[in-house]
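Format notes (please read before filing issues)

Several people have asked whether sequences and structure tokens are stored in separate files. They are not. Every record keeps both together, in the order shown below: the sequence lines, then the token lines. Line labels are part of the format and must not be stripped during preprocessing.
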Amino acid sequence: MSKNDWLKHMEETTGILRPSFGGDWIAWRQAVAKHIADGCPVCKARAKTNAKSARRREWDQAMRDCGLVKVRGACGGVYWE
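Then the structure lines:
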């Protein structure tokens, strides 16, 4: 789930406009915290996506630190060399 999809989900379920669109910052944060605490499966999917993205960024940086370069193969694969 992308960030924009999650933000739309939060607006629909909480009924509160996000702060970047003129909503109240404090009310938004409280609604998000309550919604996540209730155990929403959509929000859990977003957390899983964030964790995977963070691991991927760490892996890519570790490979770059080793002096490797990320390349795309002729058949569409991604390789480090």
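For reference, the curators noted about this record: Residues 3-80 form one domain. The beta strands are 70-72, 78-80.
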